[in-house]
Design goal:
The protein has about 100 residues and is of the alpha+beta class. It is built from two helices and four strands, in the order ββββαα.
Length: about 100
């Protein structure tokens, strides 16, 4: 799975792990570099949310809370299409059995 979160981050998976990747440009080429690895999707998603909040430039509690809400919204919007697809696939599996 490759789940784009925003222009800077995405979460990918293979058979063994979940990886948070960050977009980078190297020698004129744009690509993705792995920055963190996790055993579960929930841990990867939680840590990415924490990372995005830590990168905030907020200087007051009000601004920090607004940034937390912004990060939560970004993650929710990134997950919605993936969850919808998963639910559809599960439904097709039940109907096809």
């Amino acid at each position: 799975m490759k789940l784009a979160i925003n222009q800077k981050y995405r979460i990918i998976s293979d058979r063994q792990q979940w990886t948070i990747q960050e977009k980078r440009t190297r020698k004129g080429e744009t690509g993705w570099k792995p920055i963190m690895y996790f055993g579960t999707f929930a841990k990867a998603l939680g840590e990415l949310g924490e990372l995005m909040v830590r990168e905030s430039n907020a200087t007051t509690l009000v601004k920090a809370l607004a940034d937390v809400e912004k990060v939560t919204t970004q993650l929710s919007q990134a997950l919605t299409p993936q969850l919808k697809l998963q639910l559809e696939q599960e439904q097709e599996g039940r109907n096809g059995s």
